[in-house]
C-alpha cells in the first residue's frame, strides 16, 4: 500500500507544504524546530527521533516530544465558528470551547455542541472571564465553578466531566497561592477530579505539584520550550486559519483529556489502559529474610504516565482498578527454598506506610528459578502507588536477574 505521506525528495526528507525545514519523525513531514505542522507533530531531536515509528498521519496517533505514543489533533477558538465541515476537512478530532459571562458570541452554545457532537467531534470546555481572574482567590473559584457547571450542563455536558479554568498570563511563583485558592474554590463545587487548569508551564506544574488539579492544559506560551508530562492537552501553535476563522492548534496526549459529546462520555472505562515495564537487564540484590521492592528501569508502554518514578519501583498511581502480572528470574536460592511474592500499595506522602496485597509462595528449583505472580483484580486508592516485592528464605543473598511487569487498569 502506498504510504499516506508525500514522496521522499532527493535529499531524503519530506516537506510539509505549510512550513520549511526540519525533519519530523512520526509522519515524516517537516516543520520548524519550534513549531508544528497542522497534524500536530512537533519536530523531534535526534534522540527522540530514534525512538519514533511511522504512524497514521490523520492526527489520531503519533509520537510527541516527550515520547507519548498517542496524540489527537484539536483546536480552540472563540468568537468565530469554522463550521463542522471545515473542521472535519482539517482533521480536527476535538474542539476546546469557552464558557464565560460573555454576551457577544464567545461561548459554546447548545446548538453548537449538538452540531459538533453529531459530526463526531469531541468537546472540551474552558472557563475564562478575564485573563487574571484566578488572582481573585477562592470565592471567585466557587462562583466561576457554579456558573461554568450550569452553562456546561445546558450545553449537554454529561455529569462528571471536567472543566478547565484559565490562567491566561505569565503567572509568577508569587501568585500561585491565589491561583491555588481559586482552584480550591472550584474543587469545592465540582470535586477535585473535575478541576483542570489552562496555563503555561510554571503555574501548571505548581498546581499539579500541590495536588490542586486533576486535568492540565498547557500552552506553549510562557513555557520556554518545556512541557509538563502530566498535562492532558498541549496548545502548541497559535493564530491559524480554518475556513477564515482564527484557531489555535492543540493536541491531546492522554486518552481521557476531558472530552465529551452531548450526553456522551468517552468509553474509556470499557477498555483498560496499560503499563508494561521491565528491569532492563539491571541485576538487583535480593537479601535473605527481607521483603525487597523490585525496580523497573525499562518502560515498554506507559501512555498514561503511571510508572511515575521512571526507573523506580512504582507501577500504578491510584485511584484505579487493576490487574497485575509479574514475571521474574531469581538466581542463587538453593533448591527447595521458599520464595514469596506480593504486591503492595504505598502511600505517596510516606512510602514507609503501605497496604499488603495477596502473598504467593514459590519453591526454588535450583540455581535459576522463574516466577510468575498474578493478581487478577484489585483496587488501589487515591494517594497510593502499586509496587512489587520479593522475599527469599535462603541463608545468603540472591539476585533478580530479569523481570517484567504488566498492568491493566481502569480509572
UniProtKB/TrEMBL annotation:
<feature type="domain" description="Rv2525c-like glycoside hydrolase-like">
    <location>
        <begin position="86"/>
        <end position="250"/>
    </location>
</feature>
<dbReference type="Pfam" id="PF08924">
    <property type="entry name" value="Rv2525c_GlyHyd-like"/>
</dbReference>
<dbReference type="InterPro" id="IPR017853">
    <property type="entry name" value="GH"/>
</dbReference>
<dbReference type="InterPro" id="IPR015020">
    <property type="entry name" value="Rv2525c-like_Glyco_Hydro-like"/>
</dbReference>
<protein>
    <submittedName>
        <fullName>Uncharacterized protein DUF1906</fullName>
    </submittedName>
</protein>
